[in-house]
Write a structure and sequence with these properties.
Length: 459
């Protein structure tokens, strides 16, 4: 008997986790951290809904925190199987896991009520269990149970999973990418599917064309520069930062960007950018050609990575009033949803300034500070103090690494054997329900939006 259990990212976006059980042989797909709503984040410290000691294999689709953030917790609580992932995911997961352990320790020092879910030692044990797999290699997990990793086109190393269990074809989308990204190759297709578990982050809408978002970003930068305002971009260390750096490089090369200092204030983003440089073979044709010509797609004049906290404080202090040179600065800093990290200091100083602009190039989950700002809050809490919001707020949809409605439907339409049942996950509840209706009405597919900790028998 094959059962599918939904253990995270069900009727909400973060905390992806699923279990496929074949006659007692248990495989976990992703084990992500919850972000956003305070009540939801409490799940991170709670006991798993299953016994980690009973899990045989763990499979990681990619290195975003909402998919990998609780993997060390899994090991800490008794998981002793192998963890399968691609090579780029392995490198980025190591950086992400150590960084998350460090943040937990720092948070607990500031506030003893904050839980330490796992530490650096747990990360060491976790990394010892990781095994690298190649795309399109069919891997035997047990008798009559196989998995093949296929390129999901979302971030470097991301995969969707084609699983064969007792002859049934079960596909997990992971996070599917948006076509036309600057660096990463587009997703692959799959033709034969019995059961589909698919994300729905942007499943009810179409992204703006990337060229339109680039034009809007360039206009925003130039206007802020004219009025000596700062541009603060909360950004994710993985993929979004590298996409933006490459975009700024192209703008500067074409003499479109003003002479504005650009600071990448994220040690993690710096390390992740090094990983990108290591895996040029995963890039799309255009970006490969840039590298082949001897150019670095992740560096341009006036760009600086900020590593240590002391330098970060000096850069952040330039936000107070007009800086000494009377010029704007642009800062890319984490976290992408403004749930912590160095971006908070920049926001505290710039949100009250009408000449500054806050640019959001990515999804903001419900319950996060980023979502509050995007939805038009006039005042927000940062470091326990209320900060007024007078800065211009700009949201750019074209930079999303998530597939939109057109991408998801295109992927499904290429399936020659349509799924018997489709499970809609990893999306705000209203969006998931809307996409389920779209699949029923426009594609004549049986689909449903599962609830947290429910189970389906795959017949």
């Amino acid at each position: 008997m094959v059962t599918l259990r939904f253990l995270g990212a069900d009727r909400e976006v973060t905390g992806s986790c699923y279990m496929l059980d074949y006659n007692g042989f248990k495989v976990i797909v992703d084990c992500g951290i919850y972000q956003g709503d305070e009540l939801l984040e409490k799940r991170n410290a709670e006991a798993f809904k299953f016994d980690p000691k009973e899990v045989d294999v763990m499979i990681l689709t990619h290195a975003h925190l909402d998919h990998c953030g609780l993997v060390p917790k899994l090991v800490k609580h008794g998981f002793r199987g192998k963890i399968l992932m691609t090579a780029p995911t392995r490198d980025m997961f190591e950086i992400t896991a150590y960084d998350t352990a460090k943040i937990q320790k720092e948070d607990a020092m500031r506030d003893p009520s904050k839980p330490i879910i796992y530490n650096a030692g747990d990360v060491v044990h976790t990394l010892s269990r990781c095994e690298i797999v190649q795309y399109n290699n069919r891997i035997k997990l047990s008798d009559d149970f196989f998995v093949t990793f296929k390129n999901a086109g979302h971030i470097l190393g991301s995969a969707f999973l084609y699983m064969e269990v007792e002859g049934k074809k079960v596909v997990f989308s992971g996070d599917l990418g948006h076509k036309g990204q600057s660096i990463i190759r587009p997703f692959e297709y799959v033709t034969d599917v019995d059961y589909l578990v698919i994300e729905s982050t942007y499943a009810n809408r179409l992204h703006k064309p990337k060229s339109e978002s680039e034009t809007e970003l360039l206009h925003t930068i130039n206007e802020a520069y004219k009025r000596q305002g700062n541009i603060i971009i909360p950004t994710f260390a993985i993929e979004r930062t590298q996409e933006l750096i490459y975009g700024f490089k192209v703008m500067q090369k074409n003499n479109l960007m003003p002479p504005i200092p650009v600071y990448i204030d994220s040690p993690m983003a710096s390390r992740i950018t090094d990983v990108f440089s290591k895996y040029v073979g995963e890039f799309n044709t255009e970006t490969k050609e840039v590298v082949t010509k001897g150019d670095n797609p992740f560096y341009f004049d006036r760009m600086r990575f900020v590593q240590d906290a002391k330098r970060s404080r000096r850069v952040s202090a330039r936000n107070i009033g007009k800086n000494k040179k009377g010029e704007s600065i642009m800062v890319l800093a984490g976290s992408g949803m403004c749930t912590g990290g160095r971006v908070l200091g920049y926001l505290a100083r710039n949100l009250p300034l009408s000449r500054s602009v806050i640019v959001f190039p990515g999804y903001q989950a419900d319950g996060t500070l980023g979502r509050e700002i995007v939805e038009g809050a006039k005042e927000v809490a940062i470091y326990g103090k209320m900060v007024s919001v007078r800065a211009q707020v700009v949201t750019l949809g074209g930079f999303s690494a998530h597939g939109d409605k057109a991408d998801l439907l295109d992927w499904i339409d290429h399936m020659e054997t349509k799924p018997k049942k489709t499970f809609i996950c990893h999306g705000d509840e209203a969006i998931s329900l809307e996409f389920s209706d779209i699949l029923k009405q426009e594609r004549n597919l049986e689909s449903m939006v599962p609830y947290y900790d429910t189970e389906e028998v795959l017949v």
